[in-house]
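Cross-check.
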Amino acid sequence: MARDRRDKYYWKAKDEGYRSRASYKLFQINSKHHIINEGDTVVDLGAAPGGWLEVAKEISGGRVVGVDLRKISPIEGVETIVGDITSDRTIKKIFELVGAGGADVVICDAAPNLSGNWSYDHARSIDLTRSALSCAKKILKPSGHFVVKVFQGDMFNSFLDEVRDNFTFVRSYSPKASRSQSAEIYVVGKKFLTAPLRRNDEFDVTIEKLGSSGDGAVLIDDFVVFVKGVELGDHVRIKIQDVKPNFAFAEVISELK
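Predicted model, tokenized:
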């Protein structure tokens, strides 16, 4: 409490009527990365006490749904679910509220209860963020956006790679409203990928077409992959380097007989 009373964002939230100082983190993240746009359908995971729900509703003006294990006090224009984000039953409830098309944006500012053992707390944070990512992959529309809080530590980079495998644009960002002594950072993923392949996947292909730039072009499960440095008829093993919403790029790792 003493720390809060020295915190300008604590008093700012009090003065402006927000439930939590964390509200300003989402404002700052959105100002930097434009995650939520007007009319978006937003799902907030681990949403209690509701500070991010208030901001999401204010920015989007669209449908906003909050999910938490605890009941969230009512917010005008916001729908809430008491449920576990790892449960299929909860996923079904989310779709009942947002519609079969899914959500434009999934956000998560949740954190585990801290024990004071940093390695243990970091591992629990990563486990929670992976649950949020798994949930987001089930409910996001193609090209939707994702924001999640993570505690920095030795597993952070591997989690960042998991997000990169599922979104076109990925950045980590620390808003000014985060306390200076906090190890929290936010991972931003934009343009959710629904392609049938991912970075580092390998395939054996025969180059049957050339694109307008001269690169080879192959179809993998009806998805276009461009391959540099090949000629028509080449039979090669390729490795996916980068995936975009409508196509991917690959490099040759070996020639096949």
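The chain has two domains: 2-192, 202-255. DSSP finds seven helices and 13 strands in the chain. Passed to J.P. for a second look.
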